[in-house]
């Protein structure tokens, strides 16, 4: 859709407005549309808020561009050009803030309060791993090397920054980054058990000839070590 006004016309609260004031006014425009049972014209929104129509046009341009407001067909037919009509898109605001860390802390704390939290976290991680890469489950890796390579690629996608290591004949995967670092620092028994279960589960889902026998957390300040072994 083209700009609501045909060309951008900055009203009294245009680009020169304070960012906080502009954001507040934009929320007011969106709120007015959300509480209305019917689509509204620019003039109706302006009257409801006691602002200049150009101010409403300015903010509608942004709201339409963000997918929060949509233009709809005119409510009447007759002579003359019908006014533009707008309504709020009925969905949660996808542009809002996210606090997934809070959710992770809540769930981790709940697991930590359970009897034998490490075992339950391991089982949860394994269950997640079993369904994490279903497309590859039918492609059984024909060697440990292929399985480890596939595991490395998956861990890279998940943000673990993995690296291949070998120590006295043992194959290892070093993890240089923890996607849940702040939580793992306080709840390593839970978070690291989830990660161990994840690796075990995904290898099991591939019917890989290799598994992760244990995961040593923070063997160095910037390193966790996954120890690999033959699957039983």
UniProtKB/TrEMBL annotation:
Residues 12-22 have a biased composition (Low complexity). Residues 1-25 are annotated as: Disordered. InterPro entries: ArsR-like_HTH, WH-like_DNA-bd_sf, WH_DNA-bd_sf. Pfam families: HTH_20. This is Transcriptional regulator. It comes from Mycobacterium simiae.
């Amino acid at each position: 859709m083209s700009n609501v006004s045909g060309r951008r016309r900055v009203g009294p609260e245009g680009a020169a407005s304070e960012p906080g004031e502009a954001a507040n006014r934009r929320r007011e425009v969106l709120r007015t549309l959300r509480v209305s049972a019917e689509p509204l014209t620019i003039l109706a929104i302006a009257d409801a808020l006691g602002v200049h129509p150009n101010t409403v046009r300015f903010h509608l341009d942004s709201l339409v561009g963000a997918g929060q407001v949509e233009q709809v067909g005119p409510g009447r037919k007759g002579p003359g050009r019908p006014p533009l009509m707008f309504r709020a898109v009925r969905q949660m605001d996808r542009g809002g803030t996210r606090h997934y860390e809070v959710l992770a802390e809540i769930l981790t704390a709940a697991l930590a309060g359970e009897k034998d939290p490490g075992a339950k976290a391991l089982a949860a991680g394994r269950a997640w791993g079993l369904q994490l890469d279903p497309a590859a489950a039918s492609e059984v890796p024909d060697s440990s090397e292929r399985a480890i390579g596939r595991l490395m690629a998956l861990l890279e996608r998940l943000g673990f920054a993995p690296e291949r290591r070998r120590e006295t004949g043992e194959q290892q995967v070093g993890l240089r980054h923890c996607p849940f670092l702040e939580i793992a620092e306080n709840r390593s028994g839970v978070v690291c058990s989830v990660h161990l279960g994840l690796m075990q589960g995904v290898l099991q889902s591939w019917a890989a000839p290799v598994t992760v026998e244990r995961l040593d957390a923070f063997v160095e300040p910037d390193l966790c070590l996954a120890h690999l072994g033959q699957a039983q």
